[in-house]
Amino acid sequence: MTDTPALAIFDLDGTLVDPAGSITGGIAYALEAHGLDVPTAAVLAGMVGPPLLESLHRLVDAPEGLLDAVVHTYRKQYIEHGMAQSLPYPGIPELLARLRERGLHLTVATQKPRNLAVKLLRLHGLERFFHSIHGSPDDETLPPPPDGKVGIVLDALVTNHATADRAVMIGDRRHDAAGAAANGVRCIGVAWGFAPEGEFASLDLAAIVSDADELERAIGMVLDLAPEASAC
């Protein structure tokens, strides 16, 4: 018997919580507020996941100082209005409760600033399920981590005293799979998030799931968990 915990590492937006347009709408609002062109809906959706400043550098032709102002405007609007529009995906709270009952350690690894991740999880009553929450620096005007999600996933492993072979990442984008793979962790893709068509086909995923029940079975398969006991 090992003392190493079985660890499920969850992405946040697009995996646990449906932003319900609050992220893409907020980005569009912030760009318009500063007189910048708003990209297409597909491009906006692709900005969900990576740090916002990183996406703006890649997609928007504007001076550095103006991009910092866009981030500030977006964040203010998101905190005051957008966050309340989001909802946990169907079955997620119940899934997290069952996984805790089965003895798993649960953690969040998101590129959202950590303080906002905590606020969002707390708003929806999900914070209580997690042993730890890991995110990007709270100051988004700082340069994003050069290794993207790699260091955030590593931090989750170290904090929870987990090894890669006893862990699984659950996410909706290539950034999640890349962060997991760099740490030797297998990754499950959720089909309800923001991955554009065809993205999962290029990734080495342990499974792709379509609902919370499928996700629970996939986590059990990857971590070789004992089957959940049936009710008598």
From TrEMBL:
One of the entry's Gene Ontology molecular-function terms is: hydrolase activity
**A Pfam match:** HAD_2
Q: Name one GO cellular component term.
A: cytosol
InterPro entries this protein is in? Answer: HAD-like_hydrolase_sf (IPR050155), HAD-like_sf (IPR036412), HAD_2 (IPR041492), HAD_sf (IPR023214), PGP-like_dom2 (IPR023198)
Q: Where does the source fall among the domains of life?
A: Bacteria
Keyword annotations for this protein, in alphabetical order, are:
Hydrolase
What name does the UniProt record give this protein?
HAD hydrolase-like protein
